[in-house]
Amino acid sequence: MENSIEIKRHSAAHVMAAAIHRLFPKAKFGVGPVIDFGFYYDINIGRPVTPEDVAAIEEEMQRIVREDLEFKREEISIDQAISMFEELGQIYKVELLSDLKEKGTTRLSQEEQSEFDGENSNIASIYRTGSFVDLCRGPHVERASQIGKFKLTKVAGAYWRGNVENPQLQRIYGVSFETKDDLYKHLKMLEEAEKRDHRKLGKELDLFTFSPLVGSGLPLFTPRGTILRRELENFVWSLMNKHGYSRVDIPHMAKSDLYKTSGHWDKFSDDIFHVSSEKTKEEFVLKPMNCPHHTQIFAGRPRSYRDLPIRYSEVTKVYRDENTGQLQGLSRVRSITQDDAHVFCTLEQVRDEAKKLYDIIKNFYAKFEMPLELHLSLSDPNHPEKYLGDKLVWEKSEGTLREILQEIGLEFKEDPGEAAFYGPKIDFIAKDAIGREWQLATIQLDFNMPERFELEYVDADGEKRRPVMLHQAILGSVERFIAILIEHYSGAFPLWLAPEQVRILPVADRHNEFAEGLAAEMLEKGIRVEVDTTSESVSKKIRNAEHFKVPAMLVVGDKEASGEALSVRRYGVKEQESLSKDEFIEKTLKQIEERA
Fold it and tell me: How crowded is residue 505: how many other Cβ atoms within 10 Å of its Cβ?
């Protein structure tokens, strides 16, 4: 079998564990899954891992590669595996095996769970790499020399199984690629990404914060950060409004029955925040998604074919009980704002509606100069139990989306196994300024949820029919999209999006009155402007404005106050412009209007 890059990365994680075992024979091992571009392993060596330890582990990994150790797979009973890992003192492996034996699952996160869970809870597969033995479903490469080129990158703390009540382990990250050139390019990209880290820039630019009193994964947006959110939401709505969408509003919680009917309860019950009423003893949840609520708006009154398509749009929060170890800045949070939209239509209307959605997505991402790659995410034919609905429904859904993409004339890649559990989808992969790819927008076709909620409309013959449902997201998660944008622009947002568009810098106190009057005029016309009336020097005021990456700075002194042209400094541009007040305002308003 040809070794994919995922298999090589998974094997690299095991080589790293084998190296750690050689250097620290008493180390306790947690999990070591594949992640984007690499791998990690959670370990406990009895003390914090130092940079010197990481260097030594990487050197030992290279030694194992040169020795070309073989990956040997064995299958033993769960009881034998538990006994073996107990003798080895591997308490975390024993815990996972006990869960497999009793519950048939390790109940880990998706990427970690895939390393262990199989179809047979009575059998465990293990792999030996030299003297190191590990619990894993596999597959792996045949020999250590086949893992490709790698580099260990960082160490972080991670609670075992993401639970703060469990011991904290050390998570060692690595990246892995087929060739040395690909590895080098990725490491250079990581250097640039570190400079652009949204967590660092978000703090420097005063966009968002976190509070231990509020809780992990629950970001608080400042006034400046809230402007970013509103501008993005307004832009999305401006594109959707012209295509006939209507805004709706739903509560942040619902009875658990709603999600039991939709099918989300069985699939995601561990990720749902549960709420109970002391007065009525009813069971509620904080909504993990919005689509079931929207079905109930549709079901709230009789519908005719003349009403269709019905298009609902909403920007609202959903809540997911993420493991604390998986939370990361705005990239992965527990309160997720979705620009969610759902279309209820006939099967004959699906093509036109999907094309409209594509038009919205294309125009949105064009403004950010983020090229899009399309993927058709399909069901996994080998695991139909993962999905709602029968085979014929899925064949119809997948065929419809494939035909739509072909009609539009778009190139796309098919990804079996990447569909949502209720339907196939078109995923839009955007590329940012430093070449990273992000799965953001999506169009999902759903025959199952209308069936489960028994949604109906009356057709032209007076017969009751099921509508088809389209799920759409443009930003995806607003929080995650803002994180991506911060890093895409390195915090220097285009003028239309910038929280502060213009800063006026008076040369001396006597120029404050003119500066305040100029600012008032701009504010009235819809320009976000601030005046720096501090007693700092002009050069310090300029540095302060550049720290916040303000797109336009106006230095005003005697000449400007007397009516001469304004000196305009643009962030990141050495040459200054000389514009009259009216020219500057007109040019700025045009940039805002055109979102240039």
Answer: 27
Domain ranges of the chain: 5-195, 216-251+289-489, 502-594
Which residues are paired to 568 by β-bridges?
Answer: 554, 577
Query: How far is residue 347's CA from residue 467's CA, in Å, rounded to a whole number?
Result: 7
Residue 168 bears catalytic tag = no
Whether residue 291 lies in the annotated active site: yes
Chunked mean pLDDT (size 10), the chain, 596 residues: 82 95 95 92 95 96 95 91 93 90 60 48 85 89 94 92 87 95 93 93 97 95 98 96 95 93 83 88 91 96 96 96 84 94 94 93 95 92 81 86 89 88 89 92 91 95 95 94 96 97 96 96 97 95 96 95 93 92 96 94
Exactly one of 28, 140, 291, 432 is catalytic; name it.
291
Instruction: Tell me the pLDDT tens digit for each residue of 480-539.
Output: 999 999 999 999 999 999 999 999 999 999 999 999 999 999 999 999 999 999 999 999
Domain 5-195: CATH superfamily is Threonyl-trna Synthetase; Chain A, domain 2 (3.30.980.10)
Best CA proximity match to 511, nearest among 528, 539, 529, 534: 534
Q: Which of 323, 372, 310 is nearest to 160 (CA)?
A: 323
Question: Is 367 labeled as catalytic in the residue annotation?
Answer: no
Pick the catalytic residue: 9, 10, 28, 425? 425
User: Which of the following is catalytic: 42, 340, 427, 432?
Assistant: 340
Whole-number Å distance between alpha carbons of 104 and 112 = 15
CA dist list (Å): 92 to 72, 89, 112, 271: 22, 9, 13, 22
- Whether residue 320 lies in the annotated active site: yes
Structural contact between residues 524 and 571, judged by C-beta atoms closer than 8 angstroms = no
CATH architecture of 216-251+289-489: 2-Layer Sandwich (3.30)
Question: By C-alpha distance, which of 541, 576, 550 is closest to 494?
Answer: 550
